[in-house]
Amino acid sequence: MTDEPFYDWMSRHARAMGWDLDDEAKKKLRVWAAIAETNGLDDAQTAQIARGLGVTEAEVTAAYRPGMREAAMREILDQPDLAGLDADLDRIADDDRPR
After folding, report:
1. Residue 13 near residue 55, CB atoms below 8 Å
2. What pLDDT is attached to residue 52?
3. DSSP per-residue letters across 22-69
4. Is 16's pLDDT higher than 50?
5. Alpha-carbon distance values, 28 to 4, 22, 32 (Å)
């Protein structure tokens, strides 16, 4: 897993594979990153990115999931009712922890 944004992760691996990251290639990587971090990637998309970057499918998934989770949490916490629910769930989880 990585704390690196998915776009940066893909760019680094693309350069390592010898890609010329011109403006058009960068735009394509930004689109892939946006799709991954909002909707996730299906198996075919994950396999295509993995082949192109010379990595495993598991590495692709591990690279985009943190950003996807972060985006989902931002969306949830932007809604006051859900932010309150999140705080309640955190409190309940703390109450259930052994002391």
Report:
1. yes
2. 94
3. -HHHHHHHHHHHHHHHHH---HHHHHHHHHHHTS-HHHHHHHHHHHHH
4. yes
5. 18, 10, 6
What is the rounded distance in angstroms from the CA atom of residue 45 to the CA atom of residue 36?
A: 9
Gap between the Cα atoms of 26 and 93, Å rounded: 42
pLDDT at 94 over 60: yes
28-43 pLDDT, tens digit per residue, is 999 999 999 888 899 9
Spatial distance between the Cα atoms of 28 and 74, rounded to a whole number of angstroms: 24
CB count in 10 Å sphere of residue 67: 21
User: Which token pair is 62?
Assistant: 């591990």
How much is the pTM?
A: 0.71
The residue type at 96? D
Element housing 19 (H / E): none
